[in-house]
Amino acid sequence: MPLADRFPDLAARVASAAVMVALGAAAIWAGGVVFRALVVVAVAAMIWELHRMLAPAADRRLAAALGAAGGALVGLLALAVPELALVLTALLAAAVAALTVPAPARARFGVGAAVILVAGAGFILLRDGYGMLWLLWLVALVIGSDVAGYFAGRMIGGPKFWPRVSPKKTWSGTVAGWLVAVAIGAAFAAPLGAGPGFVVLSVLVAMAGQGGDIGESALKRSAGVKDSSALIPGHGGVMDRFDAMLGGALAVLILHQLGLLAVG
């Protein structure tokens, strides 16, 4: 099969990815206000997308207002709020915002919004509190496993991972993502001063990233949409690109709280 048939959206994906990588790399390098601003904008966009998916008949201004409020909340929470208070506040905010969507979708919206808010604040904490190298490790894990899964899944194919939820994902792509996570964990272990078990933790974080991807796929299927929005050519919406990052960031926060990840 010609490559163009195997990767019909490759050109658009590569072009959009190049822009996102450049913006992301510059923001990660700068840190501080610049990185916070990028995370705030991404969170606002994802909350907006989530509301538009689950409450398509609602006033568009409501979705925009909730997105702006969510982004602002994350920016404030990440400044100097203890992590437990951050999680509790995010859960409360998500529960209140869920009241604006139809009753059958409230639980899905509440869970999705809570994940976005907590993980968004987690990104800022990871960069500002723990350092750029730790954030680069997380980004490398998520992007590396995603790229490996994309190419291995289309070139090798084979049995589907969970066809009812995510029809395009294969076991070959999933395992390829885990193998790349092993290599990335091994590469970052020494610079981060971590032990041999760090490779295992890296695979767990990559799995959590894949879980975030699958979770968003299930959410989109329940909403009857292909993409969370059309903001990014070749990629769909912001949530379509950051779903795995959200899962990975949550895993890092949990591992850190359990004392399994000596960050900082």
Biggest β-sheet: count, sense, barrel? Answer: 2 strands, antiparallel
- Tell me the number of helical segments per DSSP (H or I, 4 or more residues long): 10
What is the domain tally? 1
Radius of gyration: 18 Å
The global form is globular
Our estimate of the beta-strand percent is under 5%
Structural features, described:
This protein has 264 residues and is mostly helical. The chain has one domain (3-257). It contains ten helices and two strands; from the N terminus they run H-H-H-H-H-H-H-E-E-H-H-H. It has helices at 3-6, 10-30, 32-54, 60-80, 83-98, 106-130, 132-155, 171-189, 198-223, 238-257, and strands at residues 160-162, 166-170. A two-stranded antiparallel sheet has the order 1-2. Helix 6 packs across helix 10. It is globular and about 50 Å long. The mean pLDDT is 85.
Could you give a short description of this structure?
The chain has about 260 residues and is mostly helical. It has helices at about 5, 10-30, 30-55, 60-80, 85-100, 105-130, 130-155, 170-190, 200-225, 240-255, and strands spanning about 160, 165-170.
Provide tags for this entry.
single chain; 264 residues; mainly alpha; two-stranded antiparallel sheet; 10 helices; 3% strand
Topology diagram in text:
Blueprint: H1 3-6, H2 10-30, H3 32-54, H4 60-80, H5 83-98, H6 106-130, H7 132-155, E1 160-162, E2 166-170, H8 171-189, H9 198-223, H10 238-257
Antiparallel strand pairs: 1-2
Helix pairs in contact: 2-3, 3-4, 3-6, 4-5, 4-6, 5-6, 6-7, 6-10, 7-8, 7-9, 7-10, 8-9, 9-10
